[in-house]
Amino acid sequence: MCGIFGYAGAARDAREAVLEGLQRLEYRGYDSWGIAVVSNGSISVDKHIGLVGYDAGSLPRSHIGIGHTRWATHGKVTDVNAHPHYSSDRSFALAHNGIVENAPALKSSLQKDGFKFISETDTEVIVRLIERRMRKAKTLSEAVRLSFKDLEGRNTIIVLAKSGEIIAARNGSPLVLGLGTSSEIYLSSDVFSCAPHVKSILVLDNGEMVAVRERAITLSSIATGKKIKQVYEKNLLKDVVVSKGAYDHYMLKEIYEAPFVIRQVIKESDATYLALARAIKRARRVYTIGSGTAGAAAAQMAFYLRLYGHIDAKELIGAEAFEYKSLISKGDVLIAPSQSGETADVLEVLELVHARRATIASFVNMPGSMMTRLSDHKFMANAGPEICVMSTKIFVSQIAWGYLVAKAVEGKLAEGKRNLKKLATETEKLLADDKFIAKVRGHASRLAHKEHLYLLGKGQNLQIIREGMVKIIEGSYVHAHAIPAGDLKHYAITLMAPGVSVITAVSNDEVRASVLNAIHEVRARGASVFGIAPQTDENFDEFLAVPDTKETSAILNIIPLQLLAYYMAVELDHNVDKPRNIAKSVTVK
Ligand code: GLU
């Protein structure tokens, strides 16, 4: 969600450097964008709604610039509301990620002091605050620091001064500084966006700000203004290639990367898994937490921990963990899978329980993230960038990892790794089977035109059908509803009638018979059933055969559901990699 970018250096044209950065931030989701550059001591701003693309000639050539991809929270999606926002005298321009929670109060105080507002954004409040501070502060940097302290909520800003200085401050959304190969300096919401040009990175913590002036970098504390030692890390993403290759969409390419991401999970050392397993076994309580797709992954992990680890693990949804915040403390273990490692509602819980000295484990795909920094047990997915806003391969890697953690707790880590190895091979074979793909595609083109779809599942497949539902809703905007098979007769059975389509994933496990019972009831009411399973059943109207991978069969079952959602979105001619209204990395609450 929303991105900030900055460039200062002689090596490149800032317009192009910032534009490329914004394009590499696109995957996070946004609705409008803008660039500001300095040239001959004055600032020029270019802002647009819609997709990032260069309007040649509208900005002068420059070597210093900032950019922003906006995901509107305050004010409609318009050119005026897009960032960067000029100060009244155009001596600086500012872009912002986050929500200023006390914006109404700050705005009325500024209005009383005579400040005028042009946009509907909370961001403009920050601009005017800095202007007011400038009346007394010695430097822009000091005015930014003091103004930033007045903001409530999770916010990160970047300011471009007409003098050529860039100042950025973080208290929420991520911010990294990258040192370029020819001494240029990058600032961005993630390492990935500037990765090809950067040799080392400095990850800013909350409460830190950075000023870049003529290649001199100053890192300081927002609270005190005192300088902070700069600790650089090697840029591990330098050689990561971003390309759709021969695929029509990133989503399809990423679904095909499932075998690769499973193998990455196996590669992690036994010692790392065993250390977490020990912590889990010693814990008073174990929680898993995530939002959206990572929430489904967190629930699947808790399921595996209960089933294989015999641990009473409880899953939490990031934004719904309110009452748990005071319950989790020292002695508890909290496990967080997250693509970005920056999801705001999950981070808020992690920060709180970190302060209460609970043990945190995270599984993240973005190096240098806040979640990794808060964690006692740090795992990296190493899955390569996931560009499609809809998560597919990362979900697979998250639940494969969760399975392995549970197997480590069970004392059967080696067996878990062997099972995942088999799963990777079977998944690979399935994805290479053209007949299988054509079948999924056929079902997708039929189901895409339904108004409602129902998914049924139980046990290891319950979260899988939930995630299948999420993918269908995200990609095709078709209303989908996941029903726990056993709960069907308690309410949703009223909806079953001729013409209704139900999708189910069934494994050869102890709950198979009860899922088939539910399906029987569905068919008795005239609805038709599309079954994903190792073998067919008389109650399936349509059937998609998948290999029986036993303990890991739920992980395999998500693949046909992801493919189904993909081909449904294609059938409906939707923007597959960027579905409407949703953002990938939700860094605001
Ligand atoms: N709250 C700001 C706005 O609506 C910033 C949104 C963002 O993070 O992109 O303009």
How would you describe this protein?
The chain is α/β, with parallel strands linked by helices and 589 residues long. It has three domains: 3-234, 4-Layer Sandwich (Glutamine Phosphoribosylpyrophosphate, subunit 1, domain 1), CATH 3.60.20; 249-430, Rossmann fold, CATH 3.40.50; 433-589, Glucose-6-phosphate isomerase like protein, domain 1 (Rossmann fold). Helices cover 35% and strands 23% of the residues. The protein has helices spanning 14-25, 103-112, 123-134, 140-149, 250-256, 258-267, 270-282, 293-307, 344-355, 370-374, 393-410, 413-432, 434-447, 462-476, 512-524, 553-571, and strands spanning 3-8, 32-39, 42-49, 64-70, 85-86, 92-98, 155-161, 166-171, 176-180, 185-188, 198-203, 208-213, 216-221, 233-234, 286-290, 313-317, 333-338, 359-364, 377-380, 452-457, 479-484, 501-505, 528-533, 542-545. It has an eight-stranded antiparallel sheet, with helices on one face. A six-stranded antiparallel sheet has the order 5-6-7-8-12-13, with helices on one face. Strands 16-15-17-18-19 form a five-stranded parallel sheet, sandwiched between helices. Strand 7 (155-161) and strand 8 form a beta hairpin. Helix 6 runs antiparallel to helix 12 and helix 7 (270-282) crosses helix 11 (393-410). The N and C termini lie close together (11 Å). The model has no long low-confidence stretch (mean pLDDT 95). Residues 2, 70-75, 81, 96-99, 121-123, 588 line the site of glutamic acid (GLU).
